[in-house]
Amino acid sequence: MKNCILLLVLLCNYLLVGQTNLIENPGFESGPVSWSYNQLHHATGWTMGCRQQFLDVDWCSPDLYDINGNQSCFVEKGLYPRDNGSLNERYAHMFNKSTDPITGESIKATIIEPLSEDYSYEVSCYVSREINVHDDDDGEYNAPLQLEFVLRNNDDCDLEKIVHTSTNIAAVFNYDSCDNAPDTPSTDWRQKLGNFNLDAGDISNNYNKLEIRIKGKATVLDPIFIDDVKLIKIPKVKACFEINNVDSAHTEQSDYGPKTVNELCLPKIEINGSCSTNEDGYHIRISEFSLSPWTIVTDYYNGWVASGTAPSTIDLNNLISVPSANNGWTSHTFDPTKLYAVSLSVGPIWDSAPFQFFRVKDCRKIEACFEIKNVDSAHTEQSDYGPKTVNELCLPKIEIDGSCSIGEDGYHIRISEFSLSPWTIVTDYYNGWVASGTAPSTIDLNNLISVPSANNGWTSHTFDPTKLYAVSLSVGPIWDSAPFQFFRVKDCREIEACFEIKNVDSVHTEESDYGPKTVNELCLPKIEIDGSCSTNEEGYHIRISEFSLSPWTIVTDYYDGWVGPGTAPSTINLNSLISIPSANNGWTSHTFDPAKLYAVSLSVGPVWDSAPFQFFRVKGCRIQTNDIEENSVLNIYPNPTIDYINFSFNKQETGTIQVYRFDSRLMYTELFNEAESLRIDMRNYKKGIYIVRVTTGTSNEVYKIIKK
Q1: How far apart are CA 346 and CA 283, in angstroms?
Q2: Which of 274, 275, 273, 272 is nearest to 246 (CA)?
């Protein structure tokens, strides 16, 4: 069963190849293996061509090389057949020793099917060339050589049609003689391929032979080797296209009668090439044209566009607008006053569709339209031209909506400070092109005026509630302008500063010049406030002061300044603000002192509404004031001290001891392991109160120490 399937596959392949390749015996394989002066005649379907190397000598012809033949040294020591398999052992050899490129050797193949104008044809062969390693006295060795593919009728050497000329054939392998051959024969074969069409006149010549010949001057030592010749018919390539986006059409007189001229609406000047068939790459010519006299005035584009099939949309604007060799390195645009012609050609044969003619016009209805957004209220004001509507807009959103504009291609905005009487522009804040495309639904006027540019005289502006403004939008490409609309700005937001003191341990009242005041007692080190209850703020400001209730006065400011943009957060650390020297605290670092009273207030922008002062004192919470507590893990002595402080544990303990200044600054830390006592040298410490934290595996206690 497997053998039957294999036989069927081989038979199908044979039939397909037979139907595809119109050359009989394309690899020179069929025919008796024999050698003679006309050895090529032993390959079925092949004969010597019309060219003969030595005129009037019939014993010299192209050679047929076979692995087992007379010329086997070339095969075995110089060049392998292309496939180097049992079914592909031969190839042809030609040379062209002549200073006249029209003489030399050539070979002819039999075409097994009549040619037709209904098809396109692809012709090809594989070629290899020996590198000449001899002296180059005449300057002719390794000269440029090409192959010509020629159609003939039997042996008629007077009637020919050259259907393809290959590119130059590069020399690819070294060979000197059979006695001095390379170690490894070459397998380098290069395909040369071309395409052609035939017309009715060509078909009447009854071409039935394909001749291959060398073109170019060469020597005997510049041989060309040929294998696997093909002539394939393919469905005929046809160029076809239509013009897209036609608005209307009319006829115009020409030297060859009336011609249809399409009228196209800018900017879409497009053609559709998808009706073209079997193409492999496409070429476009776009020209300014004259119907009388019938001539191309100038080419706007004339060149290959892309490989593959022609798409349904080809934008002619894109092709002519980019400077390239295809439009003489010049950028062009279509002009409504001129006539144009366009044609499309498709490859690989480059069949061309006839020119089609067109003119361009702008069919769009251009209209600028916009409305002011975020209007809070409106009123009328008198002007030199009667009452005018003035919109009142809430800061910060000063925006317009231009999406009602139609047909635009780019938009322009003018924003001006304005006077209604006298009716005049006081100054322009912005006057320029904004962007290409259509005007969007949101255009932020703040952004336009705040960035210095040529459109606002390189000046940054902000809207002022005391002034009147006018705005207008224009749209392109005609720059139709909508009338000015007028507005004033105001801050509609309800700004309110609000905060509360966090981490309150206890509260008491103290007398002041204005009656009793609430004083919060806060546990060091967390002295914080929460400003998140403030509303609509845009930046916040804090004042932290040492305060006296009687006389009612600020003793000194610890911090008085702007803190950050945006909304006030839920946690604002007052210790951090006063501990960093800055202009807001007189470039001085401060700490909170338990002996003093403090006031804090928060203000929020942009109006800087201020919440009232709140008062607080600080203290160290969880501080042991006795030298010895019944449940304490250690005994501290002497306290107060002037030099050393001793720590005595009730038992051996492992843990950490830390000494803090009363402003929470860490002064000393030590790890201890199975210790019964410790000593800390405090001779260099300043006088004051210090906090000691002792952490063991079973406790975490805080003590107050006084340094005298």
Answers
A1: 6
A2: 272
Which residue's entry shows tokens 């006018």?
470
Quickly list DSSP for 404-465: T-BS-SSEEEEEEEEEETTEEEEEEEEEEEEESS---S-EEHHHHHHS--GGGTT------T
Range scoring the smallest mean pLDDT among 196-200, 230-234, 289-293, 316-320:
196-200
H helices present in 133-281, as ranges:
200-203
Determine how many CB atoms are found less than 10 A away from the CB of residue 594.
12
Report the alpha-carbon distance of residue 669 to residue 694 in Å, rounded: 10
**C-alpha to C-alpha distance for 282 and 287, rounded to whole angstroms:** 17
Task: Please state the rounded mean pLDDT for residues 482-494.
Answer: 89
Predicted confidence (pLDDT) per residue in 664-699, tens digit: 678 889 998 888 888 999 898 888 888 888 888 777
* Rounded-to-integer distance, Cα 261 and Cα 241, Å: 15
In 3D space, the residue among 267, 349, 279, 339 whose CA is nearest the CA of residue 309 turns out to be 279
Residue 178 sits at the vertex; the CA angle it makes with 174 and 180, to the nearest 5 degrees, is: 60
Q: How many helices (H) and strands (E) does the chain have?
A: 6, 47
Q: How far apart are CA 510 and CA 516, in angstroms?
A: 5
The answer to whether 667 and 685 are in contact (CB under 8 A) is yes
Cβ 464 vs Cβ 449: under 8 Å: no
Q: Is pLDDT of 298 > 80? A: yes
pLDDT in tens, 162-209: 999 999 999 888 766 666 666 777 889 999 999 898 988 999 999 999
389-392 own/partner pairs: CB under 8 Å, 24+ apart: 389/485, 389/486, 390/468, 390/486, 390/487, 390/488, 391/485, 391/486, 391/487, 391/488, 392/487, 392/488, 392/489, 392/490
Mean pLDDT of 389-409: 89
User: Per the structure block, which two tokens stand in for 329?
Assistant: 């390195």
Nearest of 390, 392, 489, 403 to residue 442 by alpha carbon? 403
Decide if pLDDT at 2 tops 50: no
Residues comprising the chain, all counted: 708
d(CA 598, CA 555): 9
State the Cα angle at 699 between 697 and 705, rounded to 5°: 125
Residue 267's CB is within 10 A of a number of other CB atoms, namely 16
Average pLDDT (483-493) is 90
Quick: pLDDT tens for 529-568: 998 888 877 889 999 999 999 999 999 999 998 888 888 8
What residue ranges in 89-223 does DSSP mark as E strands? 90-94, 106-110, 119-131, 146-153, 156-165, 173-174, 190-197, 209-215
In contact, 563 and 525? CB cutoff 8 Å: no
Which two tokens mark 59? 């014993």
